[in-house]
Write a structure and sequence with these properties.
With 326 residues, the protein is mostly helical. The chain has a domain of 207 residues. Helices cover 72% and strands 4% of the residues. The longest helix is centred in the first third of the chain and has 35 residues. It starts with a helix and ends in a 20-residue tail after the last helix. The relative contact order is 0.14.
Length: 326
């Protein structure tokens, strides 16, 4: 295999693994905020227990998503340095906005929410989880804006002296028709994932007669969120008016159905990226031109085994960019 093929496999595997955690973080933050809101409005401690149970899942998922995302960031500079030098002035803008604005927004208010129980006023504490949810949505938007520019480049010019792209309009980049279509698609797909997680986790506990009051309500919330695929409609009917499904088949279907939305989003993301090939940036830069010029097959293989991005074999100044054809 070539350096290009190995680098693509390494980045692709990292991306798909990272994307397992992104949709659940995006959508579960809203569902946890809804649970806590219901607790404050209805004064029902069932919703408090529900909030804390699924809040822990949200926090664990968020932490693992951050770690896997950091690995992905390193690969831009190590495996794909030619790409990073060529598009850094444009691609880096929405990523910087995501890191400096939205990531710190959600991270700050996650901390406030975690440590604010019984220390902040109920309204301020509730606002913290809602602001966290808003932060995750904005974070997803900026990342999708960067990716959408790769699919449909707008708001840029090519500097003939450096053969690099230069951002000319941040407004055009953030209002790219591609991101305006991709963001709501990803947003609502993420709720399908969160709904499936709620249904599967609740079905596990209900089948074992564990805290039925909490998990019956959580199951109905998850079923309502995933009302589109057929199991959700059946489940809502079976759990109407305080009832619980009697047959074991429903609980098995809920558990075995959990991978389906994950597979759907993974295949969707893969289709989007593969459909752009052989371009990294459509019409501007091919994938073959994007790989780091100093990386060898042995270095990629060695660092894949170690779980880290590849490094160039020879130290020193980077090789000059190739002359791209436009």
């Amino acid at each position: 295999m070539t350096v290009l093929e190995l680098s693509r496999w390494q980045f692709g595997i990292t991306t798909v693994y990272h994307f397992i955690f992104v949709p659940l973080t995006l959508s579960l933050s809203y569902l946890v905020a809804i649970m806590q809101t219901l607790w404050r409005v209805k004064k029902d401690d069932t919703y408090l227990r529900m909030t804390k149970f699924f809040g822990k899942i949200f926090l664990i998922n968020f932490a693992v998503g951050v770690v896997t995302g950091i690995v992905q960031e390193f690969q831009f500079g190590m495996n794909w340095s030619a790409y990073s030098r060529f598009v850094g002035n444009v691609f880096g803008a929405p990523l910087a906005m995501e890191a400096l604005l939205t990531f710190f927004l959600e991270s700050t208010f996650i901390g406030v929410w975690i440590f604010g129980w019984n220390k902040l006023s109920p309204r301020v504490h509730l606002a913290a989880i809602w602001l966290t949810a808003v932060g995750t949505s904005l974070s997803a938007f900026f990342i999708l804006a960067a990716n959408s520019w790769m699919q449909h480049p707008v708001g840029y010019r090519v500097d003939p002296a450096t053969h690099r792209v230069v951002l000319t309009s941040i407004v055009a980049l953030l209002t790219n028709p591609t991101v305006l279509g991709a963001w709501p698609h990803v947003f609502f797909a993420a709720f399908m994932v969160a709904g499936a997680v709620l249904v599967a986790a609740s079905a596990w506990h209900v089948a074992r007669k564990s805290d039925l009051e909490v998990f019956r309500k959580a199951m109905r919330l998850g079923l309502a969120v995933t009302l589109a695929a057929l199991l959700a409609a059946v489940g809502l009917w079976l759990t109407r008016r305080g009832r619980l499904p009697r047959g074991r088949w429903f609980y098995r279907a809920a558990l075995w159905g959990l991978p389906l939305p994950y597979l759907a989003i993974a295949f969707g993301w893969t289709f989007t990226e593969m459909g752009r090939q052989p371009w990294t940036v459509f019409g501007l830069l091919t994938t073959a031109q994007s790989v780091s010029p100093g990386v060898t097959v042995s270095s990629v293989v060695r660092h894949v085994k170690a779980g880290a991005p590849a490094e160039a074999e020879q130290p020193g100044a980077p090789e000059p960019l190739p002359v791209f054809q436009y």
